[in-house]
Design brief:
alpha/beta, five-stranded parallel sheet, two-stranded antiparallel sheet
Amino acid sequence: MCAKQWNEEIKIDGVTYPADQLNRKKDAELLTKILVRRSNANRAKINKSSYVININAEWGAGKTYFIKRWAEDLKHAHPVVYIDAWSNDFMESPIITVLAEIQDQLLETVNQNYLNKERKKRFKNIGISILPKILAALVKRYGGLDVEDFIIVEDPAEESNGSTSNQKSLDLSAAMEAMTTQAFKEHSDYKKGVKELKATIKELVKYSIEKPKNGLRATARDYPAFIFIDELDRCRPTYAVEMLEAIKHIFDIEGLVIVVSTHTEELLHTIKALYGNDFNADNYLRRFFDTKYHLDVGISASLLEANCDFTIFDNHYLEQKSILLFPLLSQGDDIKRQLSSLIADISNWQNLAPRSAIQLANRLLTSIELIGEEKTVDILALLVLLCLYMFNKPQYDYMCSIFDEQRFEINPRVTDLKLSPKQLNLPKYLKEMLFAAEKLDGINQLLKLENYEKASLMNIKINFSDIDLLTYFLSFQSVLNRGDKAIKPGYLHTFGYNGRGAIHDYQLLEAQMTFFGLSSFTANDYLNLIGLTSKFADS
């Protein structure tokens, strides 16, 4: 049975996962190559051990998608166990969780015809006989000791006479000797139990590789076995720490690669919640991981189209309702791709995780459904405001406050819109708008342009090379404040141009915004639309 290609949709444990849109296949292939080599190198050392790697990415970055697809891909070449730590943290001990999943998932891959009765029983009851000893040692409980055994009577005669005087005392020497003996015994039992457990797991892995059930290619399966532990950062602190300790001390087995998927910064907070804010959680984690790997996140139009419902653009929905999304003047599939690309650019500009970008796209698509007929909406301005509303509320609140001003100067409080780490390529979208405007015949009725207005638009040669997001919003706010005031021939004077010298990009941008009907939507319309979409917020 061949592995599914990453560019194909796949069903895992009854859940359908879309094709890979983040080029995670490249990460999986790189990690597999490195981890197989390093694990095999560990097996060749005198002090044999497992190899533990931390896969780090923030929440919503697609860690679970990556881990599940990678694990599914590996199953055809290696034994694989996937553990959702978060869904199991109600259990008292993570050791039980890991053992149960190893037993279920690895035993499922073994051809049962090669197992005799005794070995089958041992595999099915993995750890049962020795687990209590291991747990007892880990939780430091001493059993079988009764403090009354160490009470001695000073005067037996007085006790026989029923004396109630305080003649009893604790023989501390005997108590300490007995407890020390018990501690040594439990420590010995613990070491023996761990050794037996590791031997059983190694044997089960060996059978999974050498005696696989039908459907798994025996010639392709080899060491190491991969154990994936997902969502550990979401677990309660005691469970998360106990899981790390178990990985370090119980499951340190040659031939195993243990992949721990976390938002590592959150895991650090979890550890500090247990040990205190002054605890050096970073150094603590270094004890458990041999290496770390960070998943880079980049949002693409394809990712959004694969995970969001863009069917609103089917069947010429916008044309039927006479809605224009300025500056995206195309229709049908073209506008779908333009919009998904714009959302991707905004998401990358704000460094959103894939899950957040998908939420942003869904909210924007909902807002388009709520736009009334015969309206022109600046989709770029709406998208930026919506993104700030969802993920940068202080910046959104400030942007809202400027709509009440007739004109404003560039303020340091909004310069992060201009000086963000990833610049938006606004000239690209504005040039595409001009290209689409040359085909205005298809939407001339929608725009309701007079012939002289259309001719004026076609004769303007705009470069937009100096337009950034802040300048764009200045023009946007200026047009909204102008409202529905009539624009007469010689309209360029309206935008501060006196007919002499060069026309500034922002002046021509205001002209474009006005003649495409942007004033049909007020500032409050934008803000109310954003507020209304919040009622449709994704979980």
